[in-house]
Amino acid sequence: MAAVIDNASEPQREETREGNYFVSNYPPFSFWKPERIGEAIEALNRPPAPETPMGLYVHIPFCRKRCHFCYFKVYTGMDAAAIETYLDAVRQELALYAQLPIIGGRKPRFIYFGGGTPSYLSTKQLGGLVDEMKRLFPWDEAQEVTFECEPGTLTEGKLEILRAIGVTRLSLGIEHFDDAILQSNGRAHVSKEIDRAYTFARSVGFPQINIDLIAGMMGDTDEKWRATVQRAVDLAPDSLTLYQMEVPFNTTISKEMRIHGQDVAPVAPWPVKRAWAQHCFDAFAAAGYTQTSAYTTVKDTSRSTFLYRDLLWKGADMLGTGVASFSHAGGTHYQNEHSYESYIERLGRGELPLFRALTPTHQERFVREFILQLKLGRNRRQYFLDKYGIDPNQQFAGELAALQGQGYLTFDEQGITVSREGMLQVDRLLHTFFLPEHRNARYA
């Protein structure tokens, strides 16, 4: 039975339950279908729309351990030969893309290494992958290269290699500083590895170091959270990304819940997570930081950016490589094969490993950009009038009035501004703007 997605017109569920909360794209992934793969093939074989920026995403699905809250495609215990086979397949996938009309002579504006744990790779493996990437898609016009890291996998030598290959934005998955909480939630690193990795990273001289925290992990308390926030402030990162703990399907936590017949997840309820998130943002604001989205606060807005997010939320093309990775190209969304074996097999036959796709309608593309840009805390009415010929104030007149009456946002002729309370639960509010056919459906 598909889970019902909360929306702002329903009574709030205070407890954390199984299901997706974070809205990362639209229409929901459950509407992407294998029978629509032909749409992706057609999109890839058309020249790009003029002035459309392009980025690359590389999924590295290997980890030391699987976190209990992780719902991404990851593998633990893979040997060096299996990893090299995978990297060979990624290089083959990149080579296939390089020949397609969708590239149209473009060079990537951004590159993102995600996972899994990209820093799990050895320096040799990383060098071999990047050399081929740069040969096929030169990075000389790339404004941002983001690389996700698990602190326990980093050494000074590996960080020096990352800087040498052009990483501009290093993102450390810290999540929490309390060792007991890290262990109970399945994290591979411990707090002493955080301090060591961060010190090394600073000494190497990355232009931007981002750290991730998660509010509401299993076993967290107000005292432990406040201590974690203070340690994060003391590190003085260039930016902080803060998530509120959710329990998507196919996580270890959700599977245990089903085994034991539990409806409520063993993590903090939403009001507590929102309060903890606000404490974190307040603490960073007191230290001189500026909140730039529902999840991000930065030390210097003139220097710290997140191009990957900002361009994607305005319709950029992104070629996602690797198992189960997501892409957007030529107006079509699609996802790769979702198992290691099928991904390797398809590329071994010289085929792009496409699994499912969806080409949104004009109206769906408008809704996608509208809701994603709300996560920034504001959006401009004129942007949507110019790009889509749709007036958000008319399209969503009733919804906006209702949310304004509840204190979640204000709107006028210029656009929408999300309130402090609205920012703390913006993902729940976004479902208000889903088209009727996408409501009350499983998200992923």
Summary tags:
444 residues; alpha/beta; Arc Repressor Mutant, subunit A; pyruvate-formate lyase- activating enzyme; 2 domains; nine-stranded mixed β-sheet; three-stranded antiparallel β-sheet; 17 helices; 17 strands; 18% strand; globular; disordered N terminus
List the helices and strands and how they pair.
Blueprint: H1 37-44, E1 54-60, E2 62-63, E3 75-76, H2 80-98, E4 110-115, H3 123-136, E5 144-149, H4 156-164, E6 169-175, H5 179-184, H6 191-204, E7 208-215, H7 222-235, E8 239-244, H8 252-259, H9 270-286, E9 290-291, E10 296-298, H10 307-312, E11 317-321, E12 326-329, E13 332-336, H11 340-348, E14 354-358, H12 362-374, E15 378-380, H13 381-388, H14 392-395, H15 397-405, E16 409-411, E17 415-418, H16 420-424, H17 426-430
Parallel strand pairs: 1-4, 1-11, 2-3, 4-5, 5-6, 6-7, 7-8
Antiparallel strand pairs: 8-10, 9-10, 12-13, 13-14, 15-17, 16-17
Describe this structure as you would to a colleague:
The protein is an alpha/beta fold. It has 2 domains: 1-28 and 362-435, Arc Repressor Mutant, subunit A (Orthogonal Bundle), CATH 1.10.10.920; 32-312, Alpha-Beta Horseshoe (pyruvate-formate lyase- activating enzyme). Helix content is 38%, strand content 18%. It is built from 17 helices and 17 strands. The chain has helices at residues 37-44, 80-98, 123-136, 156-164, 179-184, 191-204, 222-235, 252-259, 270-286, 307-312, 340-348, 362-374, 381-388, 392-395, 397-405, 420-424, 426-430, and strands at residues 54-60, 62-63, 75-76, 110-115, 144-149, 169-175, 208-215, 239-244, 290-291, 296-298, 317-321, 326-329, 332-336, 354-358, 378-380, 409-411, 415-418. The strands form 4 sheets. A 9-stranded mixed β-sheet has the order 9-10-8-7-6-5-4-1-11. It has a 3-stranded antiparallel β-sheet with strand order 12-13-14, with helices on one face. Helix 2 packs parallel to helix 3 (123-136). The longest helix is centred in the first third of the chain and has 19 residues, at 80-98. The radius of gyration is 21 Å and the shape is globular. Residues 1-11 have low confidence and may be disordered.
